[in-house]
Specification:
alpha+beta; four-stranded antiparallel beta sheet; 5 helices
């Protein structure tokens, strides 16, 4: 039983390291974890097969790319859940739209689903909401919020204009 617990802890630590920097090599990960390269490769393969590791994305600060052609919106969606499937059916339908980047079931809010969407223009996002999203059977209402600027994403500060990280203390 203790061996399984150690394996689980090593897998979690491996996942944490990969989430922090997915460019680490198997050799580097093995050194950090105190194990072999082969063990790391087998664990990664198993986690990929189990769909625990889904993808290795790069975090891009698109505001630094000239003429970035997209706007990002966060849409609050109020839904009437269906018997036996709850919110899952409508959430799965929403995830099928290629412009949808994320869908989250929310608690403690006045809405049920939070949808993150990318479009080329504000008008394109508005058309998606009015013609595709709001017309779904279970959707009761929507509220669209446009992201004007990203300061931090996935734990990474994107605006490093001020390298001085000290807090200002005033009397």
């Amino acid at each position: 039983m203790e061996c399984a617990s150690v394996e689980k802890d090593k897998s979690r630590e491996l996942l944490r390291l990969l989430e922090e920097d997915s460019r680490l090599t198997a050799e580097q990960l093995a050194k950090l974890l105190g194990t072999t390269k082969e063990d790391v490769e087998q664990t990664i393969k198993r986690l990929q097969d189990e769909k625990v590791i889904v993808k290795y994305p790069a975090l891009i600060n698109w505001e630094r790319v000239d003429d970035h052609p997209y706007v990002t919106a966060m849409i609050d969606v109020k839904v009437t859940p269906k018997r036996d499937v709850g919110f899952d059916e409508v959430a799965k339908r929403i995830t099928r739209f290629p412009e949808v980047k994320a869908v989250y079931l929310m608690s403690g809010a006045s809405y049920d689903l939070s949808v993150v969407l990318e479009g080329k223009t504000l008008h394109e996002v508005a058309n998606f909401v009015s013609q595709k999203l709001a017309t779904l059977d279970s959707v009761v209402s929507t509220a669209t919020h446009f992201i004007l600027k990203r300061y931090k994403h996935d734990g990474i500060a994107l605006d490093d204009q001020d390298d001085d990280q000290r807090m200002v203390v005033t009397p």
